[in-house]
Amino acid sequence: MTRRVYRGKSGSVRGLPLATGLLIAPFLVACAGAQRGEEAAPVGRTMDDERTAAEARASGADSVSEGPHVQVPDDVVAKAAADLSGYRNLDRASLELEATLTHLASADAICIGERHDDAGDHYAELRTVQGLLDRRTVRGFELGIGLEMVRQPYAPVLERYIDGGLADADLEQGLQFQSEWGYDFSYYQPVLHAAQVQFAELLPLGVPRDLTRDIAEKGLAGINPNQRRVLPELDLDVPEHRALFDSMMTKHPGTAGPDTLDRFYEAQVVWDESMADRAAAWLSQRYPGRKLVILAGAAHCHPSAIPARIKRRAAFTVVSVLPRAKDEAPDAARQRLVREYDYLLVRETAADSPAE
User: Fold this and answer.
1) What DSSP letter does each residue of 196-243 carry, written as one string?
2) DSSP code per residue over 260-293
3) For the domain with range 77-206+271-347, which CATH number is right: 3.40.50.1220, 3.40.50.2300, 3.40.50.1000, 3.40.50.11550?
């Protein structure tokens, strides 16, 4: 297939078909919050949030508050506490949690794929962050936490919070979290607080809204020169990544048609590459003295998504981690996808958990 080079700020777009149509409507706001609407827009969401994704649509609005906000208890993550263990897909090895955390601490970046409204997933993220914070002194590394749910303009807010200039009670408003992201702040507050108490850097990875919205509406060919200049290098020719994307889209008949799927895929790549580019740049500044935990949707943390795109930029070791409840039984397609992550963080069921 004929390809063309598409210049961004750090290189070219690799693997972009010349004949690909470039117009995409119902896309990226799906990962920006819990919008309600008529068509499926699962791109950028977790693989498991099918119900919410099926309700999402691209309105192009700056707010994600069309649907009613679901308030959850402030201690929702604490209530989800349970015994955790690890599972390594490479050799099918079951590991104690501490051994799992030691293995993860050997990587430069750890991408944890969450379901945004699953308290158990957020508890697994919290325990991972705590475990890595505990290992900093012995191993002598800086720890950063990369956040899909916070965009770059809010970096000063995160810096003020870590420096003690912004109270916990004011952070949610400072980040405009509900309008920017849409999921309850209570899911994320424990990790952010742990970062503040132990002085871990908080790194915003969220993609600029105007860029993603315009790509969603016009495609890469339709964005303006200023937007082209801020694009990172894009690789649209990763078979495993495209296969993951296609498998996500099979349950969304409203997006049928090869041209439509191609347009959706371009936008997905922009989302993943932008987060990977920011993560790789942060790691490179003081390599090998830094490690980064990335909190993003499950599809973003698949090995072919953010992890592969970080590794393409430099010789970083990146692992993908997927939280899972012990009694979860995904369908056959999901089982295959789960087996492709490097590690699973497995939590006991609510009935078996001592926390319950």
Assistant:
1) HHTTPEEEEEEPPHHHHHHHHHH-GGGS-HHHHHH---EE---HHHHH
2) HHHHHHHHHHHHHHHHHHHHHHHHHHTTTSEEEE
3) 3.40.50.11550
How many residues are listed for the chain in this entry?
Answer: 356
CB 73 within 8 A of CB 347: no
Averaged pLDDT for residues 139-154: 96
Q: Taking the CA of residue 32 as centre, how many other CA atoms within 13 Å lie in the half-sphere pointing to its CB? A: 28
Cβ atoms of 308 and 235 closer than 8 Å? no
- Residue among 17, 9, 60 at smallest CA distance from 228: 9
Domain ranges across the chain: 3-66+209-255, 77-206+271-347
The pTM is what?
A: 0.84
Percent over 70 (pLDDT), the chain: 74
CA separation for the pair 74, 77 (Å, rounded): 8
Please state, in angstroms and rounded to a whole number, the distance separating the CA atoms of residues 186 and 277.
28
CB atoms within 10 A of CB 260: 17
Per DSSP, the three-state class of 41 is coil
Task: Give the tens place of pLDDT for each residue, 250-297.
Answer: 765 555 566 777 777 888 899 999 999 999 999 999 999 999 999 999
| Dist. CA 297–CA 350, nearest whole Å | 23
249, 42 Cβ separation under 8 angstroms: yes
